[in-house]
Amino acid sequence: MKEGNSILISFIFKMRLLFVFMGAIAVASHNCLCTPTFNVIDYGATGDGQIDDSQAFVKAWEDVCDTSYGNPTLLIPEEKIFLLQPVSFRGPCKSAIINIELKGSIVAPSIMEGWKWATNKRHTWILFSHIRGLVMHGGGQIDGQGAPWWNCYSNTNHCEDRPTALRFHDCENLMLRGLTSINSPKNHISLNKCNGAIVSELHIIAPHDSPNTDGIDISKSFNILINNSKMETGDDCIAINHGSSFISIVGVYCGPGHGISVGSLGKNGARETVEDIYVRNCTFNGTTNGARIKTWTGGEGYARKITFEDIILVHTKNPLIIDQQYNPYDSAHAVRVSHVNYHNVRGTSSSKHAVKLHCDKIIGCTNIVLKRINITSATGEETYASCNNAKGVCSSCIPHVPCLSRE
Ligand SMILES: *[C@@H]1O[C@H](CO)[C@@H](O)[C@H](O)[C@H]1NC(C)=O
Ligand SMILES: *[C@@H]1O[C@H](CO)[C@@H](O)[C@H](O)[C@H]1NC(C)=O
Ligand SMILES: *[C@@H]1O[C@H](CO)[C@@H](O)[C@H](O)[C@H]1NC(C)=O
Ligand SMILES: *[C@@H]1O[C@H](CO)[C@@H](O)[C@H](O)[C@H]1NC(C)=O
């Protein structure tokens, strides 16, 4: 618990310093506190929801990115709907901070045939890459119009191109605040190779049965805080994947969906790592999993130093689950799972089988600590835990976890 808190505090401190520092640079270099603003309407965007406004956005972005004084701002005005084709906003930019004020709505083409892909750039609708100090806020909405993609199974319809709505690739010191993202064709937000991000007050919504509509996927990223947000989707609320560390998730409400997930790690024998993950004050309501760690059989690497603390469960199917798949043919290889803490987890499980710690026979899971767990069954029956090859401690646990020692 102390370790997790210190991760969060040192991280918040670092991020504050960074933003203050970046602001100071912006002011010092041009002696200007001004906000040069570039409104997409002035670049020919119509905002009628019908005409493709992508080119206007790209042109406005080029000017924002090229501005070296003040706080250059791309303005997407309110009460308008902007239809965008797959589009990419690239850096590096000249200013230390770039603002995107999204007040209106952005929508994707409503039918799959309407998507116009640049030749080799599929799988992402809106891409931000190689940008430092991007601040995106404004209370607006992003609508991926995902419905036709969710039911797409044929080869002729390019189902395999099903895109992520918003992807941040190679970013530094990103701030995303107060936005709504709905109905992405696939995952809503992807953070890949990002160092330093504060994501807060997001609302992500997709139907409970929409496939792969994760809220936020994180990979190869460090120093990320996701804070005060609500995710109602058809898949993971937040998924923390390979190469991620120092990730804090605080005050996030998940449900419906699949909960917060570390992994899957180690697919196809890959060596993958995740560490220093801190999840606090989160609610899982009607999710299939709560706090999940999943690794593939035959992989290598580790998932370690992971804390879930102050968690509320409402009708969660698998509240606490570690699934380190056992491979009878290749037990020398497994992604190591260690130093996992579950503290103060309470509420109801929709199944009686509330805790599953299923670890590999040879490698096992080590230093697993459960403290103050009280998971009761939503139907009033007694809950139980199952547990293979997990070592650690369980104190004040309902249900009791048989392979852990009582403190
Ligand atoms: C979470 O985000 C809010 C803004 O919604 C901010 O005021 C607060 O300080 C953040 N909390 C943490 C723990 O960082
Ligand atoms: C916990 O998170 C909720 C949002 O889900 C927030 O309203 C509340 O203030 C947080 N409580 C604490 C103690 O951080
Ligand atoms: C859980 O979700 C149900 C159904 O949406 C809702 O009625 C209830 O208020 C939620 N409970 C909590 C604690 O958020
Ligand atoms: C566990 O939770 C149940 C249901 O909320 C409650 O009745 C019970 O007193 C709790 N037990 C402990 C030891 O806190």
From TrEMBL:
Chief site of localization: secreted
Residues annotated as the enzyme's active site: 258
UniProt keyword list: Cell wall, Cell wall biogenesis/degradation, Glycosidase, Hydrolase, Secreted, Signal
PROSITE patterns in UniProt: POLYGALACTURONASE
Transmembrane intervals: none
Annotated GO MF terms: polygalacturonase activity
Subcellular location: Secreted, Cell wall
Family: Belongs to the glycosyl hydrolase 28 family.
PANTHER family: PTHR31375
Protein's recorded name: Polygalacturonase
